[in-house]
Each structure stands twice: as C-alpha cells, then as structure tokens.
Design a protein that fits this description.
- This protein has about 500 residues and is α/β, with parallel strands linked by helices.
- It folds into 2 domains: about 170 residues, Aspartate Aminotransferase, domain 1, CATH 3.90.1150.170; about 250 residues, 3-Layer(aba) Sandwich (Aspartate Aminotransferase, domain 2).
- It has 16 helices and 11 strands.
- It has a 7-stranded mixed beta sheet, with helices on both faces.
- Helix 5 packs antiparallel against helix 14 and helix 7 packs across helix 13.
- The longest helix has about 35 residues.
- It starts with a helix and ends with a helix.
C-alpha cells in the first residue's frame, strides 16, 4: 500500500480542476448566476411553458459521457435544453399550480447551501445550521400556536405538505397508541377528515397501516370547506361504535378551492372526544403573516400539529416546509431508533439532534435559505405579498360576477379561484365539463397563459387559477380572462 500512495495523491480528484483552480470555479459560478438571472429576466417574454412534447424533450438527452465535456459546452446545453424549456413560473401570466416563483435572494442562496452541504441529522454534522433551524422552528411554533404552545412546541423541516401530514399523524399515533412503533396500531382505527382533503391524508393512512378504507371523509359546506358539524357527528359515531380515532385532519387552504375549515368548531369537537387535531396548512397557514387574512386561521392555536409550506405562500424555493407539534415529546416518540453511530450525547451540551424528529436522515440545511429571506425581506413584506395574491383572486371574482360567459364557483378565501365557462347552447353536465377542458387546452397551447382545471366533489369540471406570482397584476388577470374569451371564440 505505501508504494501506491504517491500515485493516488497525484491522481486524486481533489487535486483536479475546480478543487484547485478557484478562479475557474468563480467564473463558472458567475456563469450559473447569470443564467439564473437571465431566466428570471426573460420570464415575462414568450410562452409560460415549453411547447415541446415529452418525447421531443427526452430526445435532447442521452447517456452521460465517460470522459466529460468542456464546461462551456455543458453550460450551452443547460441553457438550450433545460432552462429555456422549463416552465417560467415568474411569467406574470403563470396562474396554474401551487408552485410559486421563489423570491430571488433565497433562490440564489441555494448554491451556497449546496456548497456547504451540511447534513441536518445531528448537531455535530451541521452545528450552525442545526441551531438556525431550531430557532426558526421555535418562531414558526409561536406564530402557529401563540403562547399556548410554550417552550414545548417544536417541529421539523420536511420536504413538503405530504411529509408534514404523515409526520403529524405519526405524532398523533405516538400519543394515542404508545406501543404502536413496536406492535402496530390496534385494528379498527379511523382517521376523520374532509372530502376535499389533500390526497396525502389518505396516503398517510395507507402508509401507517390503517388502510385507506378507514378514512372517514365527511362532506363540505356551501363554502367548499369541511362541514364542521359532520366532523362532530363522525366523532360521535366512532365513539358509539367504540372505534378509536387516530386524529381529525382539517384543511387551511384546501387544494381545490383554497377554502379554510372552521378550526374553532372542529377543535371544539376534538376536545370533547380527546382526539388529536392535525391541520393541513400547507397552503394557507401563511395567512398568520397577513393582517387582512389572519382571521381565516382562527383556532389554529388549538391544533396539536400543523403542516406548513413556506415554498407556497411565503414564496420560498422548493422544498421549504415544516411540520409543527404543540408538544415535541410526541414527535420524538413518533420516531424510535437505535443508532449509536449517529445519535449520542454532546458532553452536556443542550444542542438538539434534529434527526430525532423526522424520518429523514440526510437532509439539506434548507432553513438557511429561509433565514436569508426572513432577514432580508421581513415578515411584514411577506404578509403583503400574501395579501397581493389574494387581492388578485378577489379582483377576478368581481370580474366574473359581471360576466355573461363565465361563472365563479365560489368566493375566494385565498389566492385560488375556480370558475366555469358557460358557452351558449344546451348546457348538460357532460357537455359543460368537456367544454372546460377544451378551452383550457386551447388557451395554454396558444401561449396566452397557464391555468389548470379540476373536478369538484359534485362532479363539475371547472377552470382553476392559483394567483401565486408577485409579478402578476390586475391587468394580467384581465388579460387572462380576455384571452379565454378570444380562445373560446375560435372553438
């Protein structure tokens, strides 16, 4: 072995290219930043999304080369094949999915987070990142639970609302069935939620071994929110049948219509039966930052757990999400592991190992990007951005109310609004449902903008917008509606 050491040293990858030539690396970094800013600068031009098919895009890529290629060639292909064919979320006519154009500075900080490459599993692997994350989580918990959570409220960063919902329900299982980690939950356990709940709630039931058939999904009220009285009735029925309830899952900003459940009434019902209340606030929990919309999450402070996605209405890059629990002991109890090679004492230090609160081990220090945004923009500015996008939805709603050819389905409670095209002629359900898809497809294909469609619980197919772009104005909303009319005239 000693004879091989010089050769290994001479050929070490750590003595090649970017690891030694920092000027070359700096130039490459500038080029990447320029490309990112070029994408942002051009986002208001041209179509919102690629006009190429999946097959055409796939043909642009082949197997990676064995010997590598010059950086300038890779950068050129990156621009032509990836950047220029990616969706332009910052385009003011982007009004589709619940994916925001991130604020620029936390997005640019992503490169630094990757270069630091701190793993959030244990404090020793990310000392500064761990404490930054810990303190941010304490701030989130205070925002969600107020003084009711106290010092016991904490949580974890997760990949998104789906992971947050699953983690919150794991904490609920730890409290309801302390032996579940080793022995599983008892048979017959039910999970109660609303019919409009995100699909991840039923998915969590399957992952937890409860079975999707044991999810009781109650109906909605006229606001398209979960019927709080039906939740109370479902809890009474479960008690009468002696069926244990794992939790009730409420929604703050439902995916389909952006509606907010009546958390106060649902919390009352949960308290009466001693049942865990989890709130899926992936989209709407950011209302706590808004003076105008904070009332929509009244009762949130009574939840036992909450999922919250800053990568939605706090305009952060993917993925930036948290799960919060009122009592952190249940989150710690949700994950029981023996890993002495990783989790161990810190010689009397109170530094936390955040890996104890999540099923992820290797996890990026994404909290750094969020800290950059909060420190630079401030919470008031983020609340103003929330208000801006909700005001756009309210503007569209008023335009639709005075329209003869379009009809709003509900009054918006957030930045999401569903509406229908009402073409002249016979209007049976099948014809109207088909009309929505034809109009949406033609509108998007013409490059006029980007909206989506969905099907409501009553079977109606509707057009749906999520106004989640700070660059969008009422003029762009008007242009979208005019564009739909122009498209409809050609169908």
């Amino acid at each position: 072995m000693p004879a091989l050491a010089p050769a290994l040293a001479a050929n070490s990858l750590f003595r090649m290219h970017e690891y030694d030539d920092f000027e070359e690396l700096r130039a490459a970094g500038y080029a990447l930043v320029d490309e990112a800013i070029r994408h942002l600068d051009r986002s208001a031009d041209g179509p919102v999304e690629t006009l190429k098919s999946a097959d055409e895009l796939a043909q642009s890529f082949g197997p990676p080369p064995a010997a590598g290629r010059p950086w300038r060639e890779v950068l050129a292909d990156l621009r032509e094949k990836v950047v220029d064919e990616s969706n332009r979320l910052a385009h003011p006519m982007y009004m589709g999915q619940q994916v925001c154009p991130p604020l620029p500075l936390p997005a640019l900080a992503d490169g630094l987070v990757s270069m630091l490459n701190q793993s959030q599993a244990v404090w020793e692997m990310s000392p500064a990142g761990t404490m930054l994350e810990h303190e941010l989580l304490r701030w989130f918990a205070r925002m969600a639970f107020g003084t009711g959570g106290g010092d016991d409220a904490l949580g974890s960063f997760v990949s998104g609302g789906s992971a947050g919902n699953l983690t919150g329900l794991l904490a609920a299982r730890a409290r309801a069935f302390p032996d579940a980690w080793a022995k599983g939950a008892p048979p017959g356990v039910v999970l109660i939620t609303g019919a409009q709940a995100h699909y991840s709630v039923a998915r969590a039931a399957g992952i937890l071994g409860l079975g999707a058939d044991n999810v009781v999904a109650v109906g909605t009220d006229p606001r398209h929110a979960t019927d709080a009285r039906a939740i109370a009735a479902a809890l009474r029925s479960a008690a009468a049948e002696r069926r244990p309830v794992l939790a009730v899952v409420a929604s703050s900003g439902s995916t389909a219509t952006g509606s907010f459940d009546d958390l106060e009434s649902i919390a009352d019902a949960c308290a009466e039966h001693g049942v865990w209340l989890h709130v899926d606030g992936a989209h709407g929990a950011s209302a706590v930052l808004s003076d105008a919309h904070r009332h929509r999450v009244r009762g949130l402070e009574r939840a036992d757990s909450l999922s919250w996605d800053p990568h939605k209405m706090m305009f952060q890059p993917l993925s930036t999400a948290v799960v919060l629990v009122r009592e952190q002991r249940w989150l710690r109890a949700a994950f029981q592991q023996e890993a002495p090679y990783l989790f161990h004492a810190h010689g009397g230090s109170a530094a936390p190992d955040m890996g104890s609160y999540t099923f992820q081990c290797s996890r990026r220090a994404d909290a750094i990007r969020l800290w950059v945004a909060l420190e630079h923009y401030g919470t008031r500015r983020l609340g103003e951005l929330y208000d801006h996008t909700c005001a756009l939805a309210a503007h569209l709603y008023q335009r639709l109310l005075s329209s003869d050819d379009f009809q709003p389905v509900h009054e918006p409670e957030s930045n999401i609004l569903c509406f229908r095209w009402m073409p002249a002629g016979p209007g049976d359900d099948a014809r109207l449902n088909d009309a929505q898809d034809r109009l949406r497809a033609a509108f998007v294909a013409a490059g006029r903008g980007y909206i989506v469609a969905t099907t409501l619980l009553d079977g109606r197919r509707v057009l749906r917008v999520t106004l989640i772009n700070p660059r969008t104005t009422t003029a762009h909303v008007d242009r979208m509606l005019d564009g739909l009319r122009q498209t409809a005239a050609s169908l």
